[in-house]
Amino acid sequence: MNKTFKLVIVGGGSTYTPGIVKSLLDQKDQFKLSELRLYDNFKERQDKVGVLVKKVIEMFDPEVKLVLTTDPEEAFTDADFIFAQMRVGLYHMRELDEKIPLKYDVVGQETCGPGGLAYGLRTINPMVEIIDYCEKYASKDYWIVNYSNPAAIVAKAMHKLRPNARILNICDMPVAIMRNMSNILDCDRKDIVPDYFGLNHFGWFTKIRVGEEDRTEELKDYVREHGYMPPDDRSEVRHNDASWKHTFDNAKNLMRMFPDYLPNTYMQYYLLGDEIVKHSDKNYTRANEVMDGREKRIFQAAEQYETTGEIDMTPFFTGVHGEFIVEVAMSLAFNLKKRHLVMVMNNGAVKNLPDDAMVEIPCYITKEGPEATRVGEIPTFFKGMIEQQEACEKLIVEAAIEGSYDKALAAFTLNKTIPSAMVAKQILDEMIEANKDYWPELK
Questions:
Q1: Residues belonging to the active site
Q2: Res 233: pLDDT
Q3: Is this prediction's pTM over 0.90?
Q4: Which of 70, 226, 302, 419 is the most buried (most CB within 10 A)?
Q5: Does 45 belong to an annotated binding site?
Q6: What is a single Pfam family found in this protein's UniProt entry (predicted)?
Q7: Are 139 and 170 in contact, with CB atoms under 8 Å apart?
């Protein structure tokens, strides 16, 4: 493991970047970087975050060369790994994704419901652009590890538009839930072996083992009473806001109604949508929480550091988010065949779902990519839920590729968070106007 790597973070201006960099440098003895490049089309924002990233490098591995750039050739030339975490439209567009649906008493959430469909339509073409840069400039064995949301839609679109791209789509939400599970079961997260099936942000844990010991029923009993809230205050900063605490707590209601499997927390938006809307503030959504919280804190910290040279970086070292993407990259780099939950084409893994569904299941991560495990058949309720959501995502991808208003409307209508075709049309038409600078034209 003496090889060194050139790594690019796309969306270098993200407030998560310092935490990801810290997770990378924590592994310098096994996964050594020679060069770290931050790439973003918003130079001013990236420069501010770059101040903190420079500090992280000074703290943990000053040998690493840091490059901040808005130039694709400079960013991607000979790159081995590309971590993609784009937020197209930034938090202004996320705020609209959340607030437009809420006007119609529909779930307002960044990756689920109409907000997720809107976000997907903004992200598809920029991700194609990143892949094309990699094909043109990067190492021939490059890997893109993609965190950009909504990951299910991005993954499905890339499989259609760039089927030969070396891209692995991942999500940290199951891992964040497993972190809480490990606190509940008093074990290390890395000792948890999950069985899981679904789509991204739309799935269920079927079995939880700690090493060889099956602890599923014990965990189910706990979640029915307490959700995924740990028995003490152990929790990652990123998921410590009131809205996240409510999300983890709400898992108990899902578990009580559908006791077969442990739910991904995002299932609350599809199964408890009316309750979510009832308890939402239509004028102050999660986007506002983030802008007034993490966003403000990190840019204030950058200014403080530039002014005084003093800074406490600890609040920005988001553990599981950065750890997971680095774990996956290391398994790709060194053919470790580690078992992780990632997104792959179904191809029979879930026997009674379409082969072209982009499922999230356990896979072994090799140097050639993910090797899927076999899930077998799933029960009718879960199959029906997934097929409806998968059809919705397939239609929104086709709408983006074909510029089809009709397919976009069909996708919005199929989404379980939206109660009728009339409401779907109202939301879609308002979102078209809000996204005119980002979406492909829909005719």
A1: 172, 266
A2: 63
A3: yes
A4: 302
A5: no
A6: Glyco_hydro_4
A7: no
